[in-house]
Structure to design on (144 residues):
């Protein structure tokens, strides 16, 4: 093997090792940023106009790392009884040192109190007749 081939092989190995180390470090910092962001929400919900119950059930939507400034943007989705609340997104921007730089909040405040517990109030034929009436239609329901 020529000395040029050895140098090329060494450079390829070093490059791949660097990529693997960067990927492992990025994965670790992403998780650290998620932990920092989640901890911040749990400890300071009132600073965002939320109750503890408003941030009690959340899911990570995405984690985006900005290479140009080292900030990790963690996006959370608000849930109620395991169901994602439409357009309820909160993002926490975590700096390279693990400090919270800012928060963008579109969570629904007072969600638990405002949510109506599901209950059956009408039978299927009654619901059909009500829907038809709202549309200006007449529904005929036949019994089996």
């Amino acid at each position: 093997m020529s000395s040029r081939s050895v140098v090329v092989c060494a450079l390829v190995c070093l490059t791949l090792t660097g990529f693997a180390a960067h990927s492992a470090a990025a994965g670790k910092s992403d998780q650290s940023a998620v932990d920092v962001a989640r901890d911040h929400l749990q400890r300071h919900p009132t600073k965002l106009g939320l109750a503890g119950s408003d941030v009690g059930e959340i899911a990570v939507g995405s984690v985006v790392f900005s290479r140009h400034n080292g900030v990790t943007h963690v996006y959370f989705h608000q849930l109620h009884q395991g169901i994602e609340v439409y357009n309820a997104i909160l993002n926490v921007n975590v700096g390279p040192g693990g400090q919270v730089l800012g928060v963008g909040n579109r969570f629904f405040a007072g969600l638990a109190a405002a949510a109506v517990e599901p209950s059956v109030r009408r039978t299927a034929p009654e619901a059909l007749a009500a829907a038809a009436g709202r549309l200006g239609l007449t529904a005929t329901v036949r019994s089996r």
